[in-house]
């Protein structure tokens, strides 16, 4: 464990000495070594002499109190902490970790983005679509009710208005993957021309739109590929992680330094 931030944030690492670092960024409410397949990714990195890093961000556990900007600032701080010893980074995002990565690159919070060789975006889903279709169709209309409140609770989670709007209102900062967004939104997701690898789960419980439609949207993103893990759920349980690790091995071998 290392402390990498002035906010006393820690990162878990396998302590391998390597010029290539694999950074795993988890989703909302995930702590270190979650989801469980992150442990398998760590073991893969150890076996292949790659540095594995998984940071804790300010948004854990109260993600509703922190905008994406805080995650991006924390990730930038982490990269700068490791810059003296690392020549290239491979970023893996799970769930909202995907939005964290894209926001980091779009906002230019890290000034050496050329060291980020590829981004593997596993389980990119739309929080807004899931909330509107499966939980509360009127969620977007709650903004007026919550406006003016410093902190409020929604479904047991404390929120500030900025993060609530980001997650549950169309075109919010978190709203990157909804299929009702204009095609141009997807064409603009990768302004730094980093290699993106979208990994979708065939049976993701948080996906509410046809997988074929989602694939077509992601194919609009420049410099990207789309891979579907058959039969997989959101967190790659029940053996699906092995398929992901095989895919990860193929991708990493394209970029890692000898």
Automatic annotation (TrEMBL):
One Pfam family in the UniProt entry: DUF1749
Organism superkingdom: Eukaryota
PANTHER family referenced in this protein's UniProt entry, alphabetically: UPF0613 PROTEIN PB24D3.06C
Entry protein name: Uncharacterized protein
Source species of the chain: Arcella intermedia
